Amino acid sequence: MSKNVLVIGGTRYIGKLLVQRLLRAGHGVTIATRGYAPDPFGDRIVRVRVDRRNETAMRNAFTHLGPFDIVYDQMCYNPLDAAIAVRTFAGKVGRYVMASTIDAYRALGHGHADPLRESDLAVEAQRIDTGYPWHDPCRATECYVAGKVQAEAYLVRDGALPLVTPRLAHVLGGPEDFTGRLAYYVELARTNGVLEYSNPDAVLSFMPLQGAADFLVWVGMQDFTGPVNAACDGALSAKSLYERVGAVLDTPVRMRRRVPPAEMGRLSPFDVPGAMVLDTARAQALGYRFGHCEDWIDDTIQLHDLAFV
Q: Which of 22, 25, 24 is nearest to 5 (CA)?
């Protein structure tokens, strides 16, 4: 059955693929963005130009639009954004899907012996600070983890939206990946650079760009609520990822361990002090099946290599 779907942030990366898949499945799609980035969807979608962080603009924009069967909020980064979502969409949406992240579990620290379950992160117990300057561009990086956790916490405590929070593993795409994280390792290998790493056993969960979009579409069409982890099998550390890059590119790679370990991301994008792997038992019990990193990682590395050349 066709759904009336709103995607907040649908012009690049995961959001762009999400919209493509929704259209392919026959759903009616509206995208809400600031209108700065072009999109390839032509007259197949409805466009709303609005600043996601401006509550007055959001409420005015959606006064006469909707209700929506599903809202995918790809741009909810902190409790201020969450509060705007509540005041804009309460009573007007059948399902609110706030894209969250494996990084939310960083609130628990690193080095977990067992895969992380959704219940390990008690978001309802997290402190919410609506007075913090969340939208200060100079604090974007430091705000990301705390902001996602507090956004989840705000929405859970408020309870006005039928909430689902997919916690996605680190998403790796091709050259369109604006984060540049996988590109860092490919470029380092191609320039014969030395990777410094903290802990060879500090593995992380990953998933492909296409898999992230597929999972979000699936989540939107279900009826469960609450957090749900998403990740492929086959976690990788910064060291093992760099070794994989070297193998795919057929080039020797040089590495050097740094002791004591550096803080997260200081040595390279996926270098962390300890393991952080997602338990995907809930998603699997609900009927979703993830693949293995072996299924796609080599192709993704090769795409970056072609772009490098």
A: 22
